[in-house]
Amino acid sequence: MNIGEWPTRWAARYPEETWIRYGDLSLSKGEFNARINRLAHAFQEMGVKKGVRFAALMANSNAFLEVLLALNKLGGIMVPLNFRLAPPELGYILNDSEPLGLMYSPEFAESAEALRGEVPSMKQFIRELEGGSSQDPLFEEWIAGKPEEEPVPDQEVTLDDIQFIMYTSGTTGKPKGAAILHGNTQWNAINSINMYAFDSSDTSIACAPLFHIGGLAVSAFPALYVGSKIVIQRFFNPVETLKLIEQEKVSFMFGIPVMFLLMTQVPEFESTDYSSVRFFIAGGAPCPRPLIEKWLEHGITFNQGYGMT
Q1: Could you give the count of Cα atoms lying within 13 Å of 219 in the half-sphere of its Cβ?
Q2: CB neighbours of 164 closer than 8 A, spacing ≥ 6?
Q3: pTM of the complete model beyond 0.90
Q4: Crossing angle (nearest 10°) for helices 238-247 and 257-264
Q5: How confident is the model at residue 14 (pLDDT cuts 50, 70, 90)?
Q6: Which of 55, 110, 228, 270 is 20 to 30 A from 187 via CA?
Q7: Residues linked to residue 205 through DSSP beta bridges, in sequence order
Q8: Residue 197: which residues within 8 A CB-CB, separation 6 or more?
Q9: Would you say 292 and 257 are in contact if contact means Cβ atoms under 8 Å apart?
């Protein structure tokens, strides 16, 4: 068993059920898994196998999760990068983790270009969307025509294997690469759904950065495990988040307190329909009592969590 099998199993059971909503894109469980498989085959052609690292300098998107889950199926290890870091900081992380390649979003093309030639292990750059260097393949073109059947890894991938390496903030020194096992993620998801009592009928919104452990482990992984619909917001915007909560009938959301504060400071805060929301999950910093009380006035409770990369 490994995390890459989650989409395989959900696709087999409910292939037509909507799983991912991202802008105008809607992917069923079957479509999402097929895309992951195509990417996994492309990774295999690149040389990805168990233990090989691959980095992502990406905004939130369906592609971010596809990269992670395709690597998971093969035993590859994702290295998600904080896109707020400067190229020298990114270079340190990349030279420390030694990934085979890098996928980057066009918003961070300048940083990707600055890293070219600075990391000996990185043999391949992939563009998520238009933008960046034309010498780098476009993601959709790169996976086009690849097989949709399940990839066969070179070795068995289990819960005891490393799933991704997420770097700490490096507050008192150089960032440290925290090696997160497939088992860490699975048990975190199980504990989350037991604590919060949600299931496949719920809807999560992923608006916190997925390169951060909170955004990934709270917004995405539990929903992927239990089959909940995931609404992905590329970058957090309080007005857009409120709009999506109402339109997509979001039932839970993770954010840091400042995100919830910004949502209360726009006119749409008072007019949004929150009837679908069961709770918010706050982490990353203490949540001020006045902010909690302001949301309580709209019938929304907070679950406050503490966790570390």
Answers
A1: 27
A2: 68, 71, 77, 78, 79, 80, 180
A3: yes
A4: 80
A5: very high
A6: 55
A7: 231, 253
A8: none
A9: no
Asked whether the predicted pLDDT for residue 1 surpasses 90, the reply is: no
Q: Are 57 and 90 in contact (CB under 8 A)?
A: yes
Nearest residue to 122 (alpha-carbon basis) of 139, 99, 138:
99
Phi-psi region of 281 (alpha: psi -120 to 50; beta: other; left: phi over 0): beta
Task: Record the tokens describing residue 9, joined without a space.
Answer: 């199993």
Distance CA 77, CA 80 (A): 10
The dihedral over CA atoms of 251, 257, 260, 262, expressed in degrees to the nearest 10, equals -160
Cα-only R_g, the chain: 19
Q: What is the pLDDT of residues 17-48, one digit of tens each?
A: 999 999 999 999 999 999 999 999 999 999 99
> Using CA atoms, how far apart are residues 207 and 233, in angstroms rounded to an integer?
5
Cβ(202)–Cβ(193) below 8 Å = no
Burial 73-104 (b: 16+ CB within 10 A, else e): bbbbbbbbbbbebebebbbbbbeebebbbbbb
Q: Where are the alpha helices (DSSP H) in the chain?
A: 5-13, 29-46, 62-74, 87-97, 109-115, 139-143, 182-196, 213-214, 221-226, 238-247, 257-264, 268-271, 289-296
Beta pairing partners, 282: 255, 304
The C-alpha angle with vertex 102 and arms to 46 and 92, in degrees rounded to 5, equals 130
* CB contact burial 210-235 (16+ within 10 A = b; e otherwise): bbbbbbbbbbbbbbbbbbbbbbbbbe
Residue 20 tokens read as 């991912």
